[in-house]
Structures are given as structure tokens and as C-alpha cells.
Design a protein that fits this description.
CATH topology of the largest domain: Immunoglobulin-like
Number of helices: 0
Shape: elongated
Helix content: under 10%
Strand order of the largest sheet: 4-12-11-8-9
Structural class: mainly beta
CATH class of the largest domain: Mainly Beta
CATH architecture of the largest domain: Sandwich
Length: 200
């Protein structure tokens, strides 16, 4: 578009461009490598311990990874103009790479988590006139073993406001606790691990 202003002694002309775009109104995210919920993805590695001279020197380290495949497409009607996609995988692991990407739509790709956890993945589809966001919870779940629980109860006494009693025994498939007491269940578990010993 051209706009011209004319006066008694001169003429000024400016050119302008108008970019008309269809906005992004909806988009779809698919996790193509999994079945079921993205919050229930099994972790493909295991927890490791490093032992040196019979002393644990490193723990809470995970060896392995889990890769998820992702397909994202614009489902706006009419289709959005020049739609782009920003993905923030919210992976704070020190070994994470490319946890934030900016690409065009449609997008087919993958991301590798190197440790288990629950991640709020931010998908934002946008163009020059609009943006829309979906936050999807991705759970990379490590298996566990050595599961156990203890049933206790808390009961006020004359000497203590709450006395924790855990000496209950299973009687006919049931635990019996006194009336007006508070039930407490302590649950313990651990992740399967591999032990590595460092030789001198």
C-alpha cells in the first residue's frame, strides 16, 4: 500500500505492507511411540551406585534413557498462516540437551529423557497474530521394588497429645485400631539399582 502526502512545496510518499494471516486456534499433540497416557511412560534405565573402597561416593544417578516420539499439527479452520511451534520439555537434568526447541508446523520429532520424573511439557503454537498453549504432563516412571508398608495409628493419651503406635499385627486379613484414632500408613520402596565398584 502506498500513501502520498502532497503540500505546496513537496510530496512525501511512504510504502506500507499489510500481512493478513489466519490465526492459530487449535492444534493437536500426539505421542506416537506410546500407548496409553503420556504420564505413564516406563523409564528405560536404572539407578546406579558407585562404590569406591567400600564407600558409596555417588548415588541417585540414572543410567539409560527413554525416548518419546511426538507429532504436532495445526488443526485450525481455516489453517493457520505460517504456524510455528515452541516446545519446552522442562527437563532440568544436567545431561539434558535441546530441551527447548522452536520449529515450524507440522512437526515430527522426538525427545530423550535421561532420568525419570514428572515433566510439564509446554507446547505453544503461534504466528504473528496469535498464540495458543497446551501443557501436557509427561511422566517417565522408574520401576520400583522392595515395596513395603507399616500400619500405625495416632491416639491422644494423658501424657502425649499423639502417640504413634506401630505394633499392630494382621488378624484374619485385617488390622484393628482403636476408635477415635488417626490411621497412619508408612510406605517404603526403592528403585532397582546396579552397583559399580571402582578398583584402586
Amino acid at each position: 500500500m502506498k500513501i502520498t502526502a502532497q503540500g505546496p512545496t513537496n510530496t512525501v510518499t511512504n510504502n506500507f505492507s499489510i500481512n493478513v494471516q489466519y490465526p492459530v486456534s487449535t492444534f493437536n499433540v500426539s505421542f506416537t511411540s506410546i500407548t496409553g497416557s503420556p504420564s505413564q511412560i516406563p523409564y528405560g534405565g536404572s539407578k546406579i551406585f558407585i562404590i569406591k573402597n567400600s564407600i558409596e561416593i555417588l548415588s541417585d544417578i540414572f543410567l539409560g534413557s527413554t525416548t518419546i516420539s511426538i507429532y504436532v499439527q495445526d488443526t485450525s479452520s481455516p489453517s493457520a498462516s505460517n504456524a510455528l511451534l515452541l516446545i519446552d520439555f522442562n527437563d532440568t537434568s544436567p545431561l539434558a540437551t535441546n530441551s527447548v526447541i522452536n520449529v515450524s508446523l507440522p512437526y515430527t520429532g522426538y525427545y530423550t529423557y535421561v532420568s525419570p520424573g514428572v515433566f510439564s511439557v509446554n507446547f505453544t503454537a503461534y504466528n504473528q497474530v496469535s498464540s495458543i498453549t497446551q501443557i501436557i504432563t509427561v511422566g517417565i516412571n522408574a520401576p520400583f521394588n522392595n515395596y513395603g508398608f507399616t500400619v500405625c495409628y495416632l491416639l491422644p493419651t494423658l501424657t502425649s497429645p499423639l502417640s504413634d503406635t506401630c505394633s499392630l499385627t494382621l488378624n484374619g486379613g485385617f488390622y484393628y485400631i482403636p476408635k477415635q484414632s488417626q490411621l497412619v500408613i508408612y510406605v517404603t520402596w526403592s528403585n532397582p539399582s546396579k552397583e559399580f565398584s571402582e578398583k584402586k
